Amino acid sequence: MLETVANEIMAPEGVVRDLYKQNKAADAISRGYGPEVLEFLKKFVPLGSDQTCIMATNDIFNVHSLSDNYFNHVVNLCRINDIPRISSFYKAANGKLPSNGTLIGCMETKNIRKHRILRKYPRGLAEIYYVFDFILKRIFPKLPVTRKIYFKITAGRNRVLSRTEAMGRLYAAGFEMIEEREFGNLLFYVARKKKAPLFDERPSYGPICRMRRIGQHGKIITVYKLRTMHAFSEYLQPYIYEKNSLQPGGKFRNDFRISTLGRLLRKYWIDELPMFVNLLKGDIKLVGVRPLSSHYLGLYSNELKVRRLDYKPGLVPPFYADMPKTFEEILASEKKYLDAYDKAPLRTDVRYLGKALWNIVFKRVRSK
């Protein structure tokens, strides 16, 4: 049914607009996705306008073929799960829309997919099917060894995607989320173009996460950790801070970017193990202020922001020695450590390392 709807919608641009004027596109959307979806779309874009493009495509060529800055709104009714190069697709849409232009799309999130599978098959068989589906369509596309094989066989269609990854890709492409809502087995989202794309040329999808952090003298270093967050989560840091702010201890409150496995890895400090590569490379030292992202560093006072750049960051931060509760206490803890380090570097690091290990081993302090 949805394929028939897509065929009705996908047509040359002028035909799409004429179809809607004859209410054919609206009827197709209502029949294929439901009248609730049609009303949802109408809330955010004028579907009958010449500046609204309606399509149902997973081919990036159809986006590139649009006229630059002609359409104020692009509605794509093809699930992003079936788009082979999602980030490139979003980047192309960004290039075609004017500032504050609207992009609407839909997806099947991994949670929606899980519930659909568990409802579809008998108990027992459903759980087995779900495990294999998750491995083949969620894990295989992200591993370097299996990624090429997966995309060659499936052409990138029907991938399992988290809501976090989809949102992160949108923010990386220069969009911000306006609204999202589930209808049946699909999550529809509305995004607004705010800036040019910010994509990393070497994004990491696999179990080892490469994060750009600010090191000594402002040098950008790549910090390695085991992945505890969904892919593209780093682009959502400003969004998380704006919506949830910080919790005691300086972490983001209700951080939905952290995966279930990630919480377990953080609990036992396993995610930190790859940072020993940075230690061996000389990017960091054993004890010191942590290397921060540009956004998180921007939350610091100007004085401390400038000062901490004079020092090589560390694997074990003063946080785990002092155990501050608020963000202001974190800043005070770092300042106290740097003051002591200026007077006696080695003695200060040994003292802070001992306190941190005592808190971790005996007081069972855990990373969150």
- What does the average pLDDT come to? 85
- Which stretches are low in confidence, meaning pLDDT under 50 for 5 or more residues running? 10-22
Order of helices and strands: HHHHEHEHEHHHHEEEEHHHEHHEHHH
Helices, by number, come to: 18
* Relative helix content: 40-55%
Instruction: Count the domains.
Output: 3
Indicate the radius of gyration in whole angstroms: 24 Å
Tell me, briefly, the overall form.
globular
Let me know the largest β-sheet.
Answer: 5 strands, mixed
Strand order in space, largest sheet: 1-2-3-5-4
SS class:
alpha/beta
Count of β-strands: 9
- Report, as a whole number of angstroms, the end-to-end distance: 45 Å
Q: What fraction strand?
A: 5-15%
General description of the model:
This protein is an alpha/beta fold. The protein has three domains: 2-108 and 163-193, Rossmann fold, CATH 3.40.50; 112-147; 208-361, no CATH class. It has helices spanning 2-9, 13-21, 24-33, 35-44, 60-64, 86-96, 110-120, 125-139, 144-154, 163-172, 237-244, 260-267, 275-281, 294-297, 302-307, 319-322, 327-343, 345-361; strands at residues 52-55, 73-79, 102-107, 175-183, 186-193, 208-214, 220-226, 285-287, 314-316. The strands form three sheets. It has a five-stranded mixed beta sheet, with helices on both faces. A two-stranded antiparallel ribbon has the order 6-7. α5 (60-64) links the parallel β1 (52-55) and β2. The protein is globular and about 75 Å long. The relative contact order is 0.08.
